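Structure (tokenized):
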């Protein structure tokens, strides 16, 4: 394992956030004096609430900018806890940390597994998902505003749930439901029934937060068009917070060795 930058004081950890797991890791690490944590968010300021560590927002300016940041801030280790579909950022992290020799770990929650009897239709990406949605369907798009352009002009009846009102021109003929996801199978089942959904479209994000809609669609016998995760760059991967903490223990104990 590469040796972190040699300097006195705590290990400088850059935590690339964007998931619930990142928040849990932030709380675990900031209570440990061996670590100094900086949380990086990709410009979504509303997600900054609740972090204990210092938070920076915005991009790095590509691979060159990311490498410069790691050098200038004397970062010792990078933990990539971004969304499972943050493919470009993950590629940049993998490339730059490989070139610079910094220890890095990908915190990646397991993908959802298809329940027995469920009808899942695998989509390679969002464009493929739009192609697979039948024109006569009522498609519930559980995707988030940034991932809807592939459905512009789609002939199906579209239902979209979003935390915020849509910008002008984004799927103007869709029915928009403003608010957070339901917290229970029953709540999500009621919504799917009320909207007369025939197909659910989702990305395989994994985790417990979004599972209720998948379970509700399965219980109702609805097909789920499931967008497959992008390939993970070759790197060390952890699925749980304890795995990350164990890895950091090994990095910290070996510094300067």
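Design, position by position:
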């Amino acid at each position: 394992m590469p040796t972190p930058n040699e300097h006195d004081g705590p290990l400088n950890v850059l935590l690339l956030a964007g998931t619930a797991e990142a928040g849990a890791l932030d709380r675990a690490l900031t209570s440990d004096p061996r670590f100094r944590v900086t949380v990086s968010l990709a410009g979504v300021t509303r997600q900054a609430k609740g972090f204990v560590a210092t938070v920076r927002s915005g991009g790095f300016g590509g691979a060159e900018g990311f490498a410069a940041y790691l050098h200038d801030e004397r970062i010792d280790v990078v933990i990539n806890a971004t969304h499972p579909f943050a493919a470009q950022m993950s590629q940049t992290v993998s490339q730059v940390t490989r070139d610079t020799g910094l220890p890095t770990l990908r915190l990646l929650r397991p993908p959802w597994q298809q329940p027995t009897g469920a009808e899942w239709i695998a989509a390679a990406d969002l464009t493929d998902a739009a192609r697979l949605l039948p024109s006569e369907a009522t498609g519930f798009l559980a995707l988030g505003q940034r991932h809807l352009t592939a459905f512009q002009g789609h002939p199906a009846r579209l239902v979209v749930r979003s935390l915020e009102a849509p910008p002008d021109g984004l799927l103007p003929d869709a029915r928009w439901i403003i608010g957070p996801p339901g917290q229970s199978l029953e709540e999500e089942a009621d919504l799917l029934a009320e909207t007369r959904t025939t197909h659910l479209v989702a990305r395989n994000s994994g985790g417990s937060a979004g599972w209720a809609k998948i379970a509700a669609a399965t219980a109702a016998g609805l097909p789920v068009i499931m967008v497959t995760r992008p390939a993970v760059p070759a790197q060390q991967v952890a699925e749980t917070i304890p795995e990350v903490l164990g890895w950091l223990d090994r990095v910290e104990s070996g510094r300067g060795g």
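Reviewer-requested clarification: The chain has two domains: 11-110+231-254, 120-227. The chain is about 30% helix and 20% strand.
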